[in-house]
Known about the structure:
Elements: E1 2-10, E2 15-19, E3 25-30, H1 36-46, H2 58-62, E4 63-72, E5 75-82, E6 93-99, E7 114-115, H3 116-126, E8 133-134, E9 145-146, H4 149-152, E10 157-158, H5 160-163, H6 178-186, H7 192-223, H8 225-238, H9 251-263, H10 276-324, H11 355-439, H12 450-471, H13 474-499, E11 507-511, E12 516-521, E13 524-527, H14 534-554, E14 562-566, H15 576-581, H16 590-610, E15 615-620, H17 627-632, E16 633-637, H18 646-654
Parallel strand pairs: 3-15, 3-16, 10-14, 14-15
Antiparallel strand pairs: 1-2, 1-4, 4-5, 5-6, 6-7, 8-9, 11-12, 12-13
Amino acid sequence: MQLRSLILYSKSGKVRELTFRLGALNIITGSSRTGKSIVLDIVDFCLGRDDAPVSEGPVTQTVEWVAVLLELPGTRAFVARRLPVRGKKSVSTAMLELGADLEALPYERLASNCDSNELRQQLGLRIGLGDVRSQPRPRSLQGTYAIHLGHAVPLCLQNQDELITRSILFHRQNESKSVAETLPYFLGAVGEDQARQQHELTQQRRILRRRQQDLDLAEAADRDIDSRLHLLLAQARTAGLIGTQEQFDSREELLATLRETVRHPPTVSGQEQDHTERTAALQDKRSELRARLNGIGEQRKFLMRQEAEENTYTDVVQHGISRLHAVHLIGAGGEGDGRETACPLCGSELPQPDRAVVDMHRTLEGLRGQLSSVQTVRPRREQMLRDLSDQADAAREELRGVEGALNSLAELDTDRARFRAQAEEQAFLRGRIDAHLSQLPGTHPDDAGSLQRLRRDRDLSQGIVQDLEGLLDSDAVQERLDHALNYISVDMTDYAQKLKLEWSERLVRLDARKLTVLAETDRGTIPLLRIGSGENWLGYHLVAHLALHRFFTLHNRPVPRMLLLDQITAPFYPSDLAKDSGNPARIQSDTDRTMVHAMFELMHEWVNDLAPAFQLIVSDHANLPDQWYQDCVRYNWRNGNALIPQEWIDEFRKTPGGA
């Protein structure tokens, strides 16, 4: 698989096509922010990646579809994908057309006809990946496994950030472990069936470790189960869920009782009754009796006050009568004879009654009449006081009965609250017991014998792992992998020495397990992570990918026959002015200029050595004056030239909502 052309379709239907030479070095050089880096991202997207490859800018503003025309063995493939609408970051639909003489399709014919998964599978079939798909082995928990084009693409792309890092070696390496898992297959160490078996073995070993951990945890919990159950038993007895006299001879009996308690709680004594109406009636009666007693008290006070006033009045009247009593001494007739005409001194008869004596007799008679009236009323008042005292006694007695009834109801309410609290406590404890039982291995009714089940699952995984290990000849696989890595190591060392990379004097090799570059030195093995300077990191990325793809090509491995590199000389251009010019004279150090020249010479010689079997596409600032370099330049995006034509940008700005 090589790239014949990359096509952009504007939102108004205009077409921009970039063509590339097959089996050759293709260079896109240009200033910053002209779209060089987006070329790699668009190819990545068109080969099946769902995430949109471009950030907000001229491409998202003006382009609706992106497409690639691919050269495949015996045919061509046209792949087009619509960029996601604003606000979305991914899209899974695609368009795929196949044909021997196929060219870029016009805008009017673009329409999605497959998804990204089918796209990868169909393209993978055309480069020799086959289906590489099979159903899982019997007893396996792993789903269907397939190696597709999406596993090969990361071997063919290197963007600027990846080239100058020492922590990763392959495209999107941090996003997935698929590169490490599938690299032995692409190197030919394992066949298609072996690749599936090796992948399944890796998964089954993970499952076995997880099941062993689950079993270990369950066995540790089982050792403490009796103490936890007796703690639950003590709490249940305290709350009244289980009788204090009940004894249990085995764990099973205790578990059965606890489960039964959870399902059927004991009845709490003291039926709750509604005393609201009765209490309200008694409270009303109490208020009525208290009001009645208050009324009786007021009446008694009034009568007592009246009696006191009458006593005072009687004393005054008695005193007056005693003083006027001497009037009876006047006259011969003695007391009470009514002789007002007798002289008080001599007793002789007066011609006219003495007015003073008459008035005194009249006053005395009046006082005696008043005293008689007072004495007549007093018995009735005393009777009324006795009646009021009886009424007060009866009301007090009734009030004591009402108070007693209210106190009894209050005690009942207290009992009800206590019973309610006890019921809530029991309900809480039942839930706690249920939760504990569900967590204890082998104690849940639906999980009986879970320890035995976990042991069976562990033994089953062990059997699957042993079967897979028996089918895979690990020694033969490792031997083929070592052979491939040794083959690649020879080329890596040669390329590193040509670039004069640090620590390349003895041996440079690829670590297929950790996915890094190792340099063998007199001091020992030095990984890329411990090698300094961005120039070395970039150089080792380059030699590793060139050596890998030479192996893939010469051994006819199912990997696309193209490698896209982005901004490979970025660390050597110290300023924006130098980057925009691309002139190596702008590079400050002679050593850096030599390094830049050596890298492009190496890539030029390398691709010519494999021609026409391999295509190398480099997007970069560099613009070397050498004729061979200029012959390789496909596009020079300077002086207003860029991936997105200026007329597209102007057209966008004129549209409503355009910048």
